[in-house]
Write a structure and sequence with these properties.
Pfam family, one: adh_short
Helix content: 55-70%
Number of domains: 2
Number of strands: 9
Order of helices and strands: EEHHEHEHEHEHEHEHEHH
Strand order of the largest sheet: 5-4-3-6-7-8-9
Keywords: Membrane, Oxidoreductase, Transmembrane, Transmembrane helix
Structural class: alpha/beta
CATH topology of the largest domain: Rossmann fold
Family: Belongs to the short-chain dehydrogenases/reductases (SDR) family.
Bound molecules: NADP nicotinamide-adenine-dinucleotide phosphate
Organism: Dermatophagoides pteronyssinus (European house dust mite)
Largest sheet: 7 strands, parallel
Shape: elongated
Strand content: 5-15%
Protein name: Very-long-chain 3-oxoacyl-CoA reductase-like
Distance between the termini: 129 Å
């Protein structure tokens, strides 16, 4: 019998005592088979070893790559943290926003007039009329003179006939291009009653009405808390009639005429105080934002009908209304302001009118963007409270509410 040692995986065929040749051949074959199996298992073992070595090598290589990266990072001179990248990106966006607004302002003020010239055709002539409310002083008078210079006939409206006559003579003498001036005594605080009469006078003008300047306006005598305004009921009615009703009713009289002739210019003199609430002048600033919205809304309604409607939002201009402070970098006289503001007609739907007023508005806009809407109002509250205090002290009264 063949002795098969399974422990050693060997078959010792020499120990086999074989009596038949057939058995001997079969045993030899079996021996070969075991040899093949042993070789095969050796190959598998070798394969496993190789695989293990390969895996170890790969692991070593990948760890060496990470080390290389670390080295790279350490070699990089400055690798900014994420918060710095975010901050830089935000700053860059803000910088470009400011730059765009600045370029827009430069374009409307300097480049656009150079390229396109006058966007408006001022049709001054013996039969073309400009109507100006509140025309005997301040901005109204300056607009009246500017229109006379352009050759318009003038219809001037104010409360005082004497002042109106004086202004009429002055303008006729100074501007030969202006051939006719008519005057109308109207108190715009008196509400709706006077508009039928004004309408009749406008329709009786020979020729066409090409310009309307809604300039008349009134403000507080001094900054005051709403419930403490002297003769409050009367003041509320007066300021609303003068600053809002007059603008709407005058526009309603003139705009249909402009629509028919497919041309016309309406300038509404609002105020810088329309840009944010002005506490202690609350009613004034609210009436001016009304005017501003009214103008800008109408502009979009009528822009395709040959009619230009502009909202003018001046900062201080030295007039009676603000007790004539001296002229300065920020406070022009009415003539300078009007000359500058007229250049923007046709270029801007809403104009600050004067370059330093534009710059101030620009600063305010960005204050609002960065610090919030209430910042300007807070500043205005403080300065108007101080102004009120000074008024009370001048009269020897206690300013505490
Ligand atoms: N001056 C500024 O710093 C400034 C800033 C922003 C906006 N604004 C606006 O600009 C416009 C003109 O202001 P201003 O500073 O030139 O004022 P102003 O110097 O006081 O002149 C006001 C004109 O309106 C007339 N008027 C006043 N009340 C009237 C009434 N109830 N009915 C008819 N006419 C009246 C006055 O003439 P009579 O007294 O003879 O009637 C005068 O001709 C106003 O709408 C104002 O809100 C002015």
């Amino acid at each position: 019998m063949a002795n098969i040692n399974t422990d050693n995986d060997t078959i010792n065929s020499s120990n086999i005592s074989s009596s038949s040749p057939l058995l001997s051949i079969n045993l030899t074959r079996l021996d070969n088979l075991f040899n093949i199996g042993r070789n095969y298992s050796m190959i598998i073992d070798q394969y496993d070893d190789e695989q293990q070595q390969l895996q170890q090598q790969q692991q070593q290589q990948s760890s060496s790559i990470i080390i290389t990266n670390d080295d790279d990072q350490q070699e990089c001179p400055f690798y900014p943290p994420q918060w710095l990248i975010i901050l830089f990106t935000i700053s860059l966006i803000i910088f470009f926003m400011i730059l765009i607004r600045f370029m827009q302002a430069i374009f409307t003020w300097f480049i656009s007039p150079l390229i396109f010239g006058n966007m408006v055709k001022w049709n001054g002539g013996p039969n073309t009329w400009a109507i100006i409310t509140g025309a005997t002083d301040g901005l109204g008078l300056a607009y009246a003179k500017a229109m006379a210079e352009k050759g318009y006939c003038l219809l001037l409206l104010s409360r005082n006939q004497e002042k109106l006559d004086k202004v009429k003579q002055e303008i006729l003498k100074q501007y030969q291009s202006c051939t006719d001036i008519r005057t109308l005594v109207v108190d715009f605080t008196q509400g709706h009653d006077s508009y039928d009469y004004i309408g009749e006078q406008i329709r009786s003008l020979p020729g066409s009405v090409h310009v309307l300047i809604n300039n008349v306006g009134m403000s507080y005598k001094y900054p005051e808390y709403f419930t403490r305004i002297l003769d409050g009921n009367k003041f509320i009615t007066n300021i609303m009639n003068c600053n809002m009703v007059s603008v709407v009713r005058m526009t309603y009289l003139v705009l249909p005429l402009m629509e028919k002739q497919k041309s016309g210019i309406i300038l509404n003199i609002s105020s810088f105080s329309a840009l944010f609430p002005s506490p202690l002048l609350t009613l004034y600033s609210a009436s001016k934002i009304f005017m501003d919205y009214f103008s800008r809304g109408l502009y979009w309604e009528y822009r395709h009908r040959g009619i230009i409607i502009q909202s003018v939002v001046p900062y201080y201009v030295t007039t009676n209304m603000i007790r004539n402070p001296g002229v300065s970098f920020m406070i022009p006289n009415p003539d300078t302001f009007v000359r500058s503001a007229l250049k923007t007609v046709g270029h801007e739907i809403r104009t600050y009118g004067f370059i330093t007023h534009r710059i101030l508005a620009f600063v305010r806009e960005w204050n609002r963007f960065f610090i919030g809407f209430n910042f300007s109002t807070r500043l205005a509250t403080r300065s108007l409270s101080n102004a009120r205090k000074r008024c009370y002290q001048r009269k020897g009264l206690d300013h505490h509410v």
